[in-house]
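$ ./design --mode recover --in tokens.txt
reading tokens...
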């Protein structure tokens, strides 16, 4: 898998995500079964423990996501997470999830299946579209719709931004969110841009990723703090972001100096 695939606009599924995204399978060739929203993903070696303590595990995930989003992944210890989740045992995080990396993966998986399901629905709707805007919308809207479904405040966009700005954690995020629906979306977008030189495509993919990751995180932060946002809803915000990204991909390429 080349850099232009893994680091393209799909890197946050929101995100990139991410993905910001976003927005799913582990790796490009295999897909986890979709879980009902709110259920906890068991990490390898933790299945029986997680199933027995599902309520505790879910509480730990929710608290960890918030603390990581607000303070940064490396500024928050497992002990702080356990205490904030109301666990008398400071080893509760390790008991349920293992390492901090395992915990981070579980947080991503807590959201990624729903985002992927939303993307699959959009892919079914647009079919073989030749519109760049359609494919950009498939990259953006699953993440924003998921955030809207969660209600305010949310923390996942800011959590995703924390991961995507660290080179090691970014790989974790991409591994957890890059799947068949993202691959199909990128293939569709690439088919609409046959004239775009590869170096320009890679450069604009980096720009698109940064826009998706950080713009979603900024709006999420504004909503959590009760400050003004230029758009009244996540849907309207997604429309503005899709407009900007579509313009980015379709912008003319200046002749080489």
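writing sequence...
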């Amino acid at each position: 898998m080349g850099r232009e695939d893994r680091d393209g606009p799909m890197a946050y599924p929101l995100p990139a995500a991410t993905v910001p995204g976003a927005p799913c399978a582990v790796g490009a060739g295999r897909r986890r079964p979709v879980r009902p929203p709110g259920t906890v993903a068991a990490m390898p070696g933790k299945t029986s423990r997680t199933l027995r303590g599902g309520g505790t595990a879910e509480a730990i995930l929710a608290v960890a996501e918030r603390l990581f989003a607000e303070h940064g992944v490396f500024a928050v210890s497992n002990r702080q997470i356990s205490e904030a989740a109301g666990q008398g045992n400071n080893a509760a995080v390790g008991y349920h999830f293992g390492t901090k990396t395992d915990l981070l993966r579980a947080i991503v998986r807590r959201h990624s299946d729903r985002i992927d399901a939303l993307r699959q629905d959009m892919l079914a709707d647009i079919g073989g579209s030749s519109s760049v805007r359609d494919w950009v919308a498939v990259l953006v809207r699953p993440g924003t719709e998921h955030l809207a479904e969660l209600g305010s405040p949310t923390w996942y966009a800011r959590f995703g931004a924390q991961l995507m700005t660290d080179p090691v954690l970014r790989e974790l995020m991409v591994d957890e969110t890059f799947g068949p629906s993202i691959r199909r979306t990128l293939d569709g977008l690439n088919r609409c841009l046959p004239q775009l030189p590869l170096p320009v495509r890679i450069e604009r993919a980096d720009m698109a990723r940064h826009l998706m990751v950080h713009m979603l995180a900024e709006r999420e932060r504004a909503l959590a703090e009760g400050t003004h946002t230029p758009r009244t809803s996540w849907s309207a915000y997604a429309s503005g972001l899709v407009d900007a990204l579509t313009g980015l991909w379709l912008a003319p390429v200046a002749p080489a100096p």
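exit 0
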